[in-house]
Amino acid sequence: MEQKLPEIVIGSDHAGFKMKEYIKQSLIVKGYFCKDFGTFSEESCDYPDIAHPLSEAVQLNQFQFGILLCGSGNGMAIVANKYKSIRAAICWNKETTKLARLHNDANILILPARFISLEDAVNFSFLFLTTSFEGGRHQRRVDKITNSI
């Protein structure tokens, strides 16, 4: 029986637009369904206008995972992590990406578009989507994040 790939949401501001489009096409080619929350051009836009609805969709379990991109990753992460049950992680290399899933059960990948290559962005996206949460002692810690709010 073939395992169904998770449906994901993806979004960026103007700084991450080209990278978002590249990641989205790479995911679609591999069989992922990607709902695009924008932006749809390199015209300047406000990152919260993308991060809020995307984070809400993940929080409401409409999608298992999200990917957000902006110049540094910080703005998107700040907005996304305001939502209960969202664990958004800024990832800039293989190690931070893998640990975000293994130890933190991150459900939104934040990519700093101005600081990583297109190739790395795609590789980190696939790594994020295919790495399972380790559970165990990490589950107790993740529970303390959500339960403290």
Concise synopsis of the structure shown:
This protein is of the alpha/beta class and 149 residues long.
Structure description:
The chain is of the alpha/beta class. The chain has one domain (about 10-145): Ribose 5-phosphate Isomerase B, Chain: A. About 45% of the residues lie in helices and about 15% in strands. β4 (about 90), α4 (about 95-100) and β5 form a beta-alpha-beta unit. It is globular. The N and C termini lie far apart (about 40 Å). The mean pLDDT is about 95.
Descriptive key words:
Ribose 5-phosphate Isomerase B, Chain: A, single chain, 149 residues, five-stranded parallel β-sheet
Shape field: globular
Strand content: 5-15%
Q: Indicate the CATH topology.
A: Ribose 5-phosphate Isomerase B, Chain: A
CATH superfamily: Sugar-phosphate isomerase, RpiB/LacA/LacB
Q: What is the CATH architecture descriptor?
A: 3-Layer(aba) Sandwich
Secondary structure blueprint with pairings:
Layout: E1 8-12, H1 17-29, E2 34-36, H2 48-59, E3 65-70, H3 74-80, E4 88-90, H4 94-102, E5 108-112, H5 118-130, H6 137-147
Parallel strand pairs: 1-2, 1-3, 3-5, 4-5
Helix pairs in contact: 1-5, 2-3, 4-5
